[in-house]
Amino acid sequence: MKELLIKNGFVYDPLNKIDGETMDIAVRDGKIVEEVKKGKTIDASGMVVMPGGVDIHSHIAGAKVNSGRLLRPEDHYKDVELKTVLTRSGVGYSIPSTFTTGYRYSRMGWTTVMEPAMPPLKAKHTHEELNDTPMVDKGAYPLLGSNWFVLEYLRAKMYGECAAFVAWMMNATKGYAIKLVNPGGLEAWGFGRNVRDIDDPVPNFDITPREIIQGLCKVNQILNLPHTIHVHINNLGKPGNYVTTLETMRCVENLATDNKPIMHLTHCQFSAFAGEDWRTFKSASEEIAEYVNSHSHVTLDMGQIVFTNTTTMTADGPFQFTLYQITGNKWVNNDVETETSSGIVPFQYKRKNYVHATQWTIGLELALQIKDPWKILLTTDHPNAGPFTAYPKVITWLMSRKARDDVMKKVNKKTRRKAPLSAIDREYSLYEIAIATRAGQAKALGLESKGHLGVGADADISVYNLDPKKTNLADNPEAITKAFKKAAYTIKDGEIVVRDGEVVNSVNGRTYWVKVETQANLFEIEPELKRAFEKYYTVKYENYLVPQNFSAHQTPVTAKARIKS
């Protein structure tokens, strides 16, 4: 038995309502237990102890990410990971290589990361890169919002058959959650078109984005998947798109039961734009926050931008084409057969640019104006709004008005005059940070063994050299950034993997996927799928599937479906 005792730390464990209590955390064989009598001891006196960080949305693996690495050799040289006795070398600032990604997350105290955009046809590639990413547990969301099978089933209102297909897809791709990107718009993009709003019919399919969102929400409820539908809205990144965001949230209100979330809107900063064009562009964070504060069926993540040179990448091909036209930067765009699209464009966010500076305020405004921190989670939509390595900065901005004001002094003057952020005094506590970066994310994902320090949880633990009793953290933002940049200790499955910000033990993580358990008499869709593969796909049906033994570290999460034949 391997035992570990973390003594006398200030523990922040929101899922168990522990708010800075001085206590011990005991670990045996990779799980948290009530007590241990021997083994290694970590003295965490004067330090903060939290569950390992969880990232619900970060583009870290797959064909799109690899294309970004090929597109941007200049990104490689900005940040080089040197080989050590324990770690491999690697490169990349906004698009780090696989091993580098794992090391950098672990150094900050993160232990679970989800890849949010997996083209089903390219699932094997995605899993190969996830397998190659050490230190963290992972999962991936198959893109289904413009999938031909989904559109055809939903057009015919065949929700049971659609649920059977999605259940098959989760197994075929070893996927974790239903992802929608610009629902229906990616199918339109295959013909050089897009959809204007959630009631604009998808060309050739006679179905609207509203019906796709509602239909996949019903399917998600039928399958009882651990995470809600994960939605990148139509009209993302366009002035005035907050109206689309509100309509997207409203369109599933009548499907909500028991005050539980049924939809997650991702990187909402990009979806909270007011104005008729870029000249009249402004924040609509107040309108979004007002809606979220009065409804319980939706969660969001921030998509907080950072002033830096980064790489934008998304399955939203039409949006990326527009960004290419705006910037004139080099560009990659791709169509993935009957499933999805993608685009990649390098981008630099500038403090003195009014739009960029306002975007910086919008993410923070959402997090600070939404009253319940369980509803708004911390992300940068890595690498779209900035690399995940900026999380310590974002945490600091949330916790310290002084830190925000220091940045505001340097941004565009018009932003300083107009942004609601200037009038917001709220500062997150460490308890709220633990929700936004750990407990809330694990809860939204339905990962019951993550995001908390209760008995039976996975022993994924972060220890930070930060003493909330000695320092007024809001007045000392440098201390916050320094502590979260390099964890004093990161423990993964009971093993110390990082000490003082340095990797001391390289470990493999799991890859989670959802195995849907259904009744015996499930809809028989396999013959239909095989015929469609022969007609439309460039691969054979049998070669499409990710095998059960593709990785020794694949870990199924069971969902008990409510499908009736």
Give structural notes.
With about 575 residues, the chain is of the alpha/beta class. Helices cover about 35% and strands about 20% of the residues. The mean pLDDT is about 95.
Q: What's the Cα radius of gyration? A: 22 Å
Q: In percent terms, what proportion of residues is strand?
A: 15-25%
End-to-end C-alpha gap: 47 Å
CATH topology of the domain at 53-445: TIM Barrel
Which structural class should the secondary elements be placed in? alpha/beta
Helix content: 25-40%
Unreliable stretches (pLDDT < 50, length at least 5) are none
Q: Given the C-alpha coordinates, what overall shape results? A: globular
Q: Tell me how many strands there are.
A: 26
What would CATH call the class of the domain at 53-445? Alpha Beta
Kindly state the mean pLDDT as a whole number? 95
CATH architectural name of the domain at 53-445 = Alpha-Beta Barrel
Number of helical stretches of at least 4 residues: 19
Biggest sheet layout: 9 strands, mixed
